[in-house]
Design goal:
It is built from 14 helices and 17 strands. With about 650 residues, the protein is of the alpha/beta class. It is elongated.
């Protein structure tokens, strides 16, 4: 690319600046003069036209063409007026005047009013008004010398520009000798220093002005550069070494980022698969509930009671499966979000094994499976007692469900080493293939058992694995296809003794409460805004008998009815309009007239913290929906037996 020198650029800038300034000044002067000329000439023509119209108005009024022509003939004294004419009220030409050489310049009729240009002339047409009436119009056409003036100004401008640019050129040459030459000298030295790396060169100082100061500064800079050249080289070598180090670190970070991205993509795919599987698992029991419910709602009058009961059994079974699935999904969600609180403490394994044995024996007897627990296990592990029982029960129940006919399950407890305790659940089932073992702890993956007779969710083992890891342990499986599997859990051993606890009476949770002797009708108030839930409780209590049921549709109405009817027990829903169940219960507790009445919560909020909060607030029991009829009746019986007799009568029970 062609590059101009500093001299040429300075000369060009100076000349261009002078030319632009000159053109702007001349242009402004010419424009102003032409504008003044135009306005003056138009004003003069308008004045002549108005004067001519006034002087010829009587002639036009009385149709005196001779007088009109004489008045127009006076325009010969204006040599720039080329033609003039008078027109009647209808626009026809009345009289005219034409200068020599201007024949054919008058229109036959007046087409436009006002000022307008025609070729290189200017024409003006004004109306003639007499006593408020327009009796005609006057037309003047004159020379318009604007173009001649423009040409004249252009010539003057060219001469002025040539003279001004010549003067600017001479001044620029003098300026170059004073400024440009010293700068060019500094430039030559700088170029030589860059090419030869010779920092001993110095720029000449020709003046004592700013350019001289520039030369001194440049020479001082060369001295500093020469002084620090070797330091810069040393720093460059050090910098190159650091760059190589950083490059290696960056490559390592990029590799880690690539692996993290791949992990994130894998997790995203797993999330999508999880949601798809969860949708499928939720819809499957809903399909049975809705389908058999629709069948019951159709005209099946001819169906046998056994057939109807079969439909009901399908609905109840699917509902229980759906409830189990929802509970396990909620448990998994709480674990994954870190909202599970564990109380890790020394736990005597013999107590946990004994309690699990009592809970699992009915299931094993029903299926004909022999379950053996290691006797006299004296190992102590660090774990959450309740969560450890949940883990062990899940492993043993799976070993029973997926076992063969007349199979066996062996549960053992031993010290794996000085720091760990191992729980092992061995079964005589079909065993697992290696591919099944790899997919064992994936949500909703039932390892090909989806079409089998055993219902399941495919989440239990995932929850079990998360709980074991939260307790600081490990879980694994050793399986031989065709022979069976061994699920093991390793927990940290404790050197502190565990405090023994009383055994739990699990049978009370699986049997209907004994029905006390009836002493008379008991009054129960059910505060519920959902008609279906109210109808369900009404049917349950009607089947039990001995209860007079009152109902209220919201919390405020429930408080009013409790004060008026003084029921023996109150069943309270939590989520209601106007006033929540928690608010209504608090009001009843503060009122001396109702403070003694037990309030049992019936709510769909099944979160453990909600249950703990409700019990702390003063609820007698906290039951969650879907309702378990046995637990509801047991809680109601317990509440009725605790009510003190009112008015000297014994407490009502059933």
């Amino acid at each position: 690319m062609f590059r101009l020198s500093l001299q040429h650029r300075l000369l060009g800038v100076t000349m261009l600046t002078s030319l632009i300034a000159l053109l702007v000044a001349l242009g402004a002067m010419v424009a102003y003069d032409l504008k003044s000329y135009h306005e003056g000439w138009v004003a003069e023509l308008k004045a002549q036209a108005e004067l001519l119209g006034q002087s010829t108005a009587p002639a036009l009024e009385f149709d005196d063409v001779k007088v009109a022509r004489e008045n127009l003939a006076l325009l010969r004294l204006q040599p720039r007026v080329r033609a003039a004419a008078l027109y009647g009220a209808e626009g026809e030409r009345f009289a005219s005047y034409t200068a020599k050489g201007a024949e054919g310049t008058l229109p036959g009729r007046v087409e436009m009013r006002g000022v307008h240009r025609i070729d290189r002339d200017i024409a003006i047409s004004l109306p003639i008004v007499q006593d408020g009436r327009t009796i005609g119009s006057v037309y003047l056409r004159a020379e318009y010398a604007l173009f001649d003036r423009v040409l004249t100004y252009l010539g003057i401008a060219a001469i002025v520009a040539i003279v001004a640019l010549g003067i600017a050129f001479l001044l620029t040459l003098r300026l170059q000798r004073a400024v440009v030459r010293p700068i060019l000298g500094i430039s030559d030295v700088a170029r030589d220093v860059m090419q030869r790396q010779d920092y001993s060169r110095r720029a000449p100082k020709l003046t004592d002005d700013e350019v001289g100061v520039l030369a001194d500064s440049f020479n001082g800079m060369l001295v500093e550069i020469e002084k620090h050249a070797q330091e810069v080289m040393r720093l460059n070598e050090k910098l190159e070494a650091r760059v190589r180090e950083r490059t290696a670190q960056l490559e390592s970070s990029n590799e880690e980022l690539r692996l993290a991205t791949a992990t994130a993509e894998k997790a995203n795919r797993a999330k999508s698969e999880f949601l798809s599987s969860m949708s499928h698992e939720l819809r499957t029991p809903l399909n049975a509930i809705i389908g058999f419910g629709q069948l019951l709602g159709t005209n099946i009058a001819d169906a046998k009671p056994e057939r109807r009961q079969e439909f009901v059994d399908h609905i109840v079974g699917a509902g229980k499966h759906l409830l189990t699935l929802i509970n396990e999904i909620l448990n998994l969600a709480r674990i994954e979000s870190g909202h599970v609180e564990l109380s890790v403490e020394p736990v005597l394994m013999a107590e946990v094994l004994e309690e699990c044995r009592r809970m699992i024996e009915p299931m094993a007897d029903q299926r004909g499976i022999t379950v053996e627990f290691t006797p006299d296990c004296r190992e102590v592990a660090l774990a959450d007692r309740m969560r450890l029982k949940q883990v062990l029960l899940n492993l043993v129940s799976n070993a029973i469900k997926y076992n063969r006919q007349r199979g066996w399950v062996h549960v053992s407890c031993s010290a794996r080493d000085a720091n760990h305790v191992r729980l092992a659940v061995q079964d005589s089932g079909q065993g697992l293939q290696p591919a099944q073992v790899e997919a064992l702890f994936q949500p909703f993956n039932r390892l090909g058992q989806e079409g089998g007779p055993e219902q399941g969710t495919g989440i239990g083992l995932v929850v079990t694995q998360r709980l074991v890891e939260l307790m600081g342990g490990r879980i694994g499986v050793d399986s031989t296809p065709g022979e069976g599997s061994v699920f093991w859990v390793d927990l940290q051993a404790s050197d502190q003794p565990a405090l023994p606890r009383e055994a739990t009476d699990w049978g009370a949770l699986t049997q209907l409460p004994a029905e006390p002797a009836r002493r008379g009708p008991a009054t129960v108030l059910y505060v519920e805004d959902n008609p279906a839930s109210l109808k369900l409780v009404e049917e349950l209590l009607a089947a039990r008998g001995g209860i007079r049921l009152l109902s209220a549709g919201n919390g405020q109405l429930g408080v009013d009815m409790a004060r008026e009817h003084q029921p023996d027990v109150i069943l309270m829903d939590n989520n209601m309009p106007t006033m929540t169940g928690r608010e209504a219960q608090a009001i009843l507790k503060r009122d001396p007239r109702t403070a003694h009445i037990p309030v049992i919560a019936l709510t769909a909020n099944a979160m453990p913290e909600a249950a703990a909060s409700g019990m702390a607030a003063g609820f007698y029991r906290y039951l969650t929906k879907p309702l378990d009829p046995r637990r509801l009746l047991e809680a109601l019986d317990s509440a009725l037996t605790t009510v003190r007799p009112r008015g000297g009568k014994p407490p009502i029970s059933f």
